[in-house]
Amino acid sequence: MARSRETKIELTAYDDLFQTDESREEAKLSKIRDIPISEIDEFPDHPFKVLMDEDMEQLVESIKRNGVMTPATVRLKEDGRYELISGHRRKKACELAGLETLKCEVKELTRDEAIIVMVESNLQRSVILPSEKAFAYKMRLEAMKRQAGRPAKENYSPVGNNSEFATSSDELAEKVGESKNQIFRYIRLTELVPEILQMVDERQIAFRPAVEISYLTEEQQYTLLEAMEYNDATPSLAQAIKMKKYNQDGKLTSEVIQSIMEEEKPNQKEKPAFRDERITKLIPKTVPRGQETDFVVKALEFYNRHLQRNKAHER
């Protein structure tokens, strides 16, 4: 006798079965509404900066003429207020334009889902600072690991081989189109003191030396800052690696940092004798580099003799 086979029949929900494309669109639109800006809170630890630049001015003018074309994304919080997930520039532009509401799409998202959406939407920007990528990648990687039930905190290192950590970082690398090692390097920048991280954003310190500097303690980084200012120079990759090695060996003192920063670099340009533009613009370009001080001293000597002659004539 043949076995009776059980056949599973999945029934389509009544509402889905009779819902038209038009009604589905209406349901989606019902979640798009004008929300008072006063009821919208910023995203906690939002890593992306809202700059008051020419693009912002153009966005303000566009919103004054046409309103907000693309809704911002928010989620409803437990206290009844809204949390802004994407659209921080649009919100600021609306405030500058004198509007009291912001067109938003309300989404039901968990904290980690909100982090992932926030990072994804902001990574579409044409210009992203290293510090923005650093904190965005870190937030998103930790959110992905929590979603997968993995520990959120790890020691971010380009040579990390923890299998669970590798799984999340592989997923992130595929999503953002960067190598896993490069993602690790960006995340290392979050260990920099704010002053050095700002120098990275302003391209005063190159990316790779900055990654090596991130392994120094906070105190060592501030000592390095002083040495950079004193020597009017930033560390090369070789110098940064040397400091990291001394630190790993427990031998990185303030004297060692200063000594490393005093090393002459290949193709290093000679430092200008004077930084004050009031002086440099008066030195003829025909004066050879390195002889600016002699020129200024001779000019001052000549001027002093001129003053003395004038005093002699006045007697």
3D architecture notes:
The chain has four domains: 22-109, Conserved hypothetical protein from pyrococcus furiosus pfu- 392566-001, ParB domain; 129-191, no CATH class; 193-261, no CATH class; 277-308, no CATH class. 52% of the residues lie in helices and 7% in strands. It has helices spanning 14-18, 21-29, 54-66, 88-96, 111-122, 130-147, 163-176, 180-188, 194-201, 207-213, 218-231, 237-248, 254-261, 277-280, 292-314, and strands spanning 32-36, 40-41, 72-76, 82-86, 101-106. A five-stranded mixed β-sheet has the order 1-5-3-4-2. The chain is flat.
Topology:
Elements: H1 14-18, H2 21-29, E1 32-36, E2 40-41, H3 54-66, E3 72-76, E4 82-86, H4 88-96, E5 101-106, H5 111-122, H6 130-147, H7 163-176, H8 180-188, H9 194-201, H10 207-213, H11 218-231, H12 237-248, H13 254-261, H14 277-280, H15 292-314
Parallel strand pairs: 2-4, 3-5
Antiparallel strand pairs: 1-5, 3-4
Summary keywords:
single chain; 315 residues; alpha/beta; Conserved hypothetical protein from pyrococcus furiosus pfu- 392566-001, ParB domain; 4 domains; five-stranded mixed sheet; 5 strands; 52% helix
Give the topology string: H per helix, E per strand: HHEEHEEHEHHHHHHHHHHH
Low-confidence stretches: 1-10, 158-165
Number of helices: 15
Largest sheet: 5 strands, mixed
Strand order of the largest sheet: 1-5-3-4-2
Strand content: 5-15%
Computed over alpha carbons, the radius of gyration is 30 Å
What gap, in angstroms, lies between the N and C termini? 138 Å
Indicate the percent of residues in helices.
40-55%
Class by alpha and beta content? alpha/beta
The tally of structural domains comes to 4
Summarize model confidence as the mean pLDDT: 82
Number of strands: 5
Instruction: Assign the CATH architecture of the largest domain.
Output: Alpha-Beta Complex
Specify the overall morphology: flat
